[in-house]
Amino acid sequence: MSTCKVVLKISLSVSFFFLFCFLSCPSYAIETDATLKRVFLLINNSLTTETPELWVHCQSSKGHDIGNRTIPVKDELSTIFLADPPGEPVYTCQFRWDPKKLDFNVYDKYIDTHCITAEGGVEEEKIPTISCYWHVVSDGFYMGTKDRIGEKFHDW
Ligand SMILES: *[C@@H]1O[C@H](CO)[C@@H](O)[C@H](O)[C@H]1NC(C)=O
Ligand SMILES: *[C@@H]1O[C@H](CO)[C@@H](O)[C@H](O)[C@H]1NC(C)=O
Question: Any stretches that span the bilayer, and where are they (predicted)?
Fold first, then answer.
């Protein structure tokens, strides 16, 4: 057998193996996909006055709009989505607290590294779950946990 035939034979069996695996092992593919994450994105109004109202309009780079609305004091806006790879899709919010306004990414590749490991994943799925918890305060925007304002990321 010529070298060429041997190479062809090997490459055919390799591609049959991958084709077989692709068709028959979708759960294997998900379990070993280390980049897939479930993301809880939360925006808490930690201001101390109801007036002026805090308006928030957020959407993802995939066109998922999570509303253009006010968030009452101590209340939160939340959404959940799958990120793959980490940082995608990007979520951007426009914040308005008259007369102040600011737009920035509340979830992207950089922000992903500042989120915290969260409970709430479905055990069998083995998808890691993170929580990206924002607090809107009178002097700016912080990332922390539900009970802790945390680290400042932006001024108003
Ligand atoms: C959000 O809603 C307010 C009030 O209904 C409206 O004035 C504003 O134009 C809306 N903004 C966007 C970006 O849709
Ligand atoms: C929002 O954050 C405050 C702390 O600033 C906390 O007391 C409150 O419970 C949070 N709201 C929700 C809905 O978790």
Answer: none
pLDDT at 19 over 90: no
> Which residues span the domain enclosing 4?
1-32
Check which CATH number belongs to the domain holding 97 and give it.
2.60.40
Q: Take atom 5 of ligand 2 and give the residue whose Cα is closest.
A: 46
Domain match, 13 and 28 both: yes
pLDDT digits (tens, 9 = 90+) for 98-151: 999 999 999 999 999 999 988 765 566 678 899 999 999 999 999 999 999 999
- Residues 12 and 41 occupy one common structural domain: no
Q: Which DSSP state fits 23?
A: H
> How far is the C-alpha of 15 from the C-alpha of 115, rounded, in Å?
39
Distance 65 CA to ligand 1 centre (A): 13
Between CA 88 and CA 82 the distance in angstroms is 8
Which atom, in ligand 1's list, is nearest to the CA of 94? 13
Question: In terms of residues, how long is the chain?
Answer: 156
